[in-house]
Amino acid sequence: MSGRHADRPDLLVIGAQKAGTSWLHEMFADRADCWVPPFKELHFFDHKFCPENRRWTRWHVKKGLRDARARLDARGDLDAATADWLDRIGTPPFFNGTWYRGIFAAAPPDRFKVDVTPEYCAIGPDGIAFVAKFLKSARFLYLIRDPLDRALSQLRMNVSRKQGKGSPPDLAAWQAAANDPVIASRGDYAAYIPAWDAAFGADRMLYLPYGRIARDPGGLMAEIEAFTGLPPAPYPRLRDRIHVTDALPVPKNVRDMLAERVAPQRAFLDERFGAGFTRDI
């Protein structure tokens, strides 16, 4: 890939939330020729262009850095240089270009660098225009999951986080969580995909169906290798499940409500990609 930057990613994985991005992050982390940041989801672009995310993006980065430091320390990999680097990227201001470039500047120069942040799909035309200028040669990957399955997975995650280890959620809790605008906004393929299509052609933008992670993970990674120019490599955790959401039973009327709401998204995907693609989402 020509025009690579030493201090910027070569690939953005832009979505979708609850569509296998954690699994894909680990696949890249397992490659000796790739480099991922010490924690998933940097939120550089969505912090700038999704104002509602600013309520929690700083918290996420600080938590990610704490967890990364503890993990590296437990493995005996927290040397003085790494500790100093974590201190620097953990010191405000966050989310400016110097901060973001400082993260990727730590990568060895021959590594293929990846930022996996599923909220990037939602940054809109202005955000995408900024990305196009900031990352002049990067490529972009968007994992697409069935709209209802994705919404239900996110709903279960949100309810589980809010409920904690307390009593099981009642119907009112499920309905309130299902009505949270974030459920719809994280899966608004009909808005997001045309915006990315308008900016990048197939040489820089790849859409893949989520269902292939379970059905054909090796073939999925081979397609990603071909797209990115990476050579074939082994993936020791290819069939692992990463960050599995609690299988809380969603009340039928809540499920039916979500199914009705996301039906236009499924229709959009069928039209945009065709049945051969969407049977695998």
Automatic annotation (TrEMBL):
Q: Which domain of life is it from?
A: Bacteria
Q: Which organism is it from?
A: Oceanomicrobium pacificus
Matches recorded under InterPro entries:
NST/OST (IPR037359), P-loop_NTPase (IPR027417)
Q: Which GO terms describe its molecular function?
A: sulfotransferase activity
Protein name in UniProt:
Sulfotransferase
Q: Which UniProt keywords apply?
A: Transferase
Kindly indicate whether the keyword tRNA-binding belongs to this entry.
Answer: no
As given in the record, the signal peptide range reads: none
Q: Which PANTHER family match?
A: BIFUNCTIONAL HEPARAN SULFATE N-DEACETYLASE_N-SULFOTRANSFERASE, HEPARAN SULFATE SULFOTRANSFERASE
Plastid in keyword set: no
Q: Which residues form a coiled coil?
A: none
